[in-house]
Specification:
The complex is a heterotrimer. Chain A is 35% helix and 27% strand. By secondary structure, chain A is α/β, with parallel strands linked by helices. A 6-stranded mixed beta sheet of chain A has the order 6-7-8-3-9-10, with helices on both faces. In chain A, strands 2-1-4-5 form a 4-stranded antiparallel beta sheet, covered by helices on one side. In chain A, helix 6 packs across helix 7. Chain A starts with a strand and ends with a helix. Chain B has 2 domains: 170 residues, D-Maltodextrin-Binding Protein, domain 2, CATH 3.40.190.10; 97 residues, 3-Layer(aba) Sandwich (D-Maltodextrin-Binding Protein, domain 2). The termini of chain B are far apart. In chain B, helix 6 links the parallel strand 6 and strand 7. By secondary structure, chain B is α/β, with parallel strands linked by helices. Chain B has a 6-stranded mixed beta sheet, with helices on both faces. A 5-stranded mixed beta sheet of chain B has the order 7-6-8-5-9, sandwiched between helices. Chain C is mainly α. Chain C has a single domain, classed as MetI-like (MetI-like fold, Orthogonal Bundle), CATH 1.10.3720. In chain C, 84% of the residues lie in helices and 0% in strands. Chain C is built from 10 helices and no strands. Chain C is flat. The chains are: A alpha/beta, B alpha/beta, C mainly alpha. At the A-C interface, loops of A face helix 7 and helix 8 of C. Chain B: It holds the Pfam family NMT1. Chain B: Keywords: Signal, Transport.
Chain lengths: 240, 325, 258
Amino acid sequence: MQELITVEDVTKKYGNKTALGNANLKIEQGEFVALVGMSGSGKTTLLRMIAGLEQPTSGQIRQAGQVVDSINTNARVMFQDDRLLPWLSVRENLTFGEHSKKDITEADSLLNLVGLDEYADVYPEKLSGGQKQRVALARALMSHPKLLLLDEPLGALDALTRLNMQDLILQICRKRNFTTLLVTHDINEAVRMANRIIVVKNSMIVRQVENPYQGQDSVDAEAKQTGIVNDILHTIYEKD
Amino acid sequence: MKKKNSVRKIFILGLVVLGVLVAFFGWKQTQDSTSKSLKKVIIGYQAGDEFDISKTRGEFVKKMKKAGYSVTFKEFQNGAAMMQALANGNIDYGRMGDSAPITSIAAGTKVTYVAAGGTKALGSGVVVKKDSGINSISDLKGKTIAYTKGTTSQYMIIKVLKKAGLTTSDVNLVNLDQSAASVAYAKGKVDAWANWDPAIAQAEVTENSKLLINGNQSKAYNRSVIVATTSFAKNNKSVTKAIIKYSNQDMQWANTHHKKLIAMMVKSLKLNKKVVTKMVNRRTYSMHAMTKARVAEFQEIADVFYENKIISKKVSVAKYTQYVK
Amino acid sequence: MEETKSKNKINSILMQLLPWTIPVALIILWQIAVDVGWITSSFIPSPLSVLANGVSLWKSGELPKNISISLYRALVGFAIGGGLGFILGFLNGVSKVMRALFDTTIQMLRNIPHLALIPVVILVLGIGETAKISLVAIGCLFPMYINTYHGITSVDPHLIEMGKSYGLSKYKLFSKVIFPGALPTILMGVRYALGVMWTTLIVAETVSADSGIGYMSTNAQQFMNMKTIFLCIIIYAILGKLSDFIAKTLENILLDWR
C-alpha cells in the first residue's frame, strides 16, 4: 500500500495552550481512518492542519510527499455545518456556478449518487438537514479528491438519518476508493465506518486500533465491534 | 413563481430604462447651445429683477451675441449666495440691492460697483396691517418688526427708526429670511415687516396691509446695482459698457410696455396679476454707469452700517467703484 | 372550498390596498377642509388646485423639463457616489491596509452634514452642474460605503473558509461567496442611498439653480406660491416612492433565494 498522508512530530499551540502535542500518524491510500476523542482533545485541529486551514507550530505534514504549508487543494473537507451557499441552487453549489458541460454532468451524477437528483434546481433553504449534508457530501466528491476530510459531518443529524448517512458515505468511499479521514466523537460511528481508529486524548495521540470488522453488520461482527467500542471507551475515560 | 419574476424583471427594466431616457433628456437641456468662439460672460440675477426682464424678453442676449459675448444667466435666491459666487469667480457680474456689497466689501471680498439702476423706493419700506393700530412710524415703539440681516431691509430699519426718533432698542427686531418672514407676518406673529416688492405689494393686496413709510420718505432708496469682481471689472470695461447699454434699452422698453411686462412677470414670478401691476406701476426702470451722486448715496449706507456696528471696518465706496464712460 | 378561495383573494386585495387608505383619506379630508373653509386656501391650497397647477405646469413644458433635469442630476450623482462608495467599501472590506488607510477619514467625513459642505463645493467646483451632481454623489457615497463595507466584512467566515479550502480562485471566491453574501446589506445601502439622493438634490438645487424640482420649490417659496410648493412636495414623494419600489423589487429579484 502506498502512503498518502504523513504527520511527523506535529505540535500546534495557541499561545501557551497546546492543542495537539507531538503527533505522528500515517494514512495509506484507500484507508478509512477515524479520529476519536472528547471534544477539545485536538482531533479537529489535526484535521484542519491536514486540510491546510491551519499551520503546525512545529513538525511537518506531507501529502504524497509534498509538504502541506498552505490550503491543501488536494483534499476536500466536509464540515460539521453544511456550509452550502444559500444563493446558489443545489447543482450550482457543486459546480460553484460553472456552466461547463463536464462539471454539470459530474454534478448531476453525484447528486444521483446521494439520491438528490430531483432537487438539483432548488435552493438549499428548501432541504432538510440530512439532505443538506448529502449535498455537502456530493460537493466534497466533485473532481474526485485524493483525500476526504470529514469533520464531524453527521454531528447535527438525528439518529436515523445519521445511520443512513453512515452507510451512504461508507458505501461511496469503498466503491470509489477514496482515502478518508473521519473526525467524530461518536465511537460507535467510528467503529462502524473505519478500518483504523486513532484515539486522541489530552492533545496526544494515545492509541491506534485496527478494526477488521469495518462496515460489517452480521450479528457476530456487531458483537465484535461493540467489544472494540468498549475497549476505546475504556482508554478515553481511563485515569492517567 | 419563476414566471412572475420574469414579468417583474421586464417591468423594472422598463422603468429603469425610462428613467435613464428621461435623465438623458434632462442632460441635453443642461447643455449650453451657445457657440464657443464668443467670449463667455456669466451674470447672476434674482427673480423679477432687471436681468430677469432682459432674460425673459430675449433681446439682451441677442444683442450681446452680436457684440461678441455669449451670456449665461444664473439665478440666485438671495444676494448673499450671489456674493459668494462672485467672490469665487463663478459668476462675472451680479445684480443685487445696494446694501449687500457693503457688508461683503467690509468682509474683504474684492468686488466693484460698475452700474446702478433705478430704485424701488415706492415699493420698499415698512408694511403693517391696516387694523394694527399703527398709523405712524412713531407707533412702532415696542412693536415686533421682521427684517433680513445683511440686506437693504436692515438699512431701511435703521433709517426709519432714526426718522421716528427711536433706536433699535425701542423695538423688537427679528431677523427672518424672506419666506419665514412672509409666514410670520401673515400669521400676525410680527407687527411690521421691512421689505420690498413684490413681497410688499403682495402684502398690500392680499393681507389688508398698508405701506407705513416708503423709501423716498425714509431715504433708504433700495437701488439696484451691478457689481463685478474687481479683477474682472478692470479688464473688461467694454463688456460692462455693453451690458449697461443693452440693459438700459430693455429698461426703457419696460417703462413703456407695462402691459407686456406685467403679463411676462405674472408668468415668470407666478404671482397674482394685481400684485405685479401694483409693483410695476410704482417703479421706474433704468440702468446707468456709476456717478459721483451714486457713490455718495452708497457711502451713506456704509457709514450708517459702520456707526451701527453692522460692519467692523470703514468702507470707502469710491475705492470700489468703476466709472465706465 | 371555492368560497374560501375567493374570500382569500378578496382579503389579499384588501391587504394590498390597506397601506394607501391613510394617504387617500388624508387627501380627501384636506380637500373637504379647504372647500368648507376650515383652512384658508391662500396658505394651504386644495389638492385639486395643486393638481390643476401641476397640469398647467406640465402643459407649459416647465414640469417635464424640471423633472428630467432633476432626474439627470440625481441619477448621475447616484451612479458616481454609489459607485465610489461601493468600490471604497469593497476595497476596505477585503484589504486591511486599505481599511487602515481610509476608514478613519471616511468615518470623519461621514458625519459632516451635506448642507455644511455647500460653500466648500461652490469654492472648489463652482456653481455649475458639477457642483450639484457632486453634492448628490457625496450624499450617496456614505450609505453605499458603509453598507458595502459592513456587508463584506460580515459575510459568514465559515463560508469563506469553505471556499478557500475548495480551491476557489480569488475572483470566484468574491463573485460566488463574498459578493452574494454581502448583497442583502449592499442592497439595503442602495435603498438608503436612493433616499439620500432625493433629499440632497433638493439642497443641491438651491445653489444657483435655474432648473430642477428643487429650484421650482425654492423659487415658489420666495414668493409664497403655495400651490407649486405643495406640487413639488408631492413630486418628491412620488419620485421617492418610485425609486424605493424599484430598489425593493430589485431586492426581490436578486435575493430570490431568501
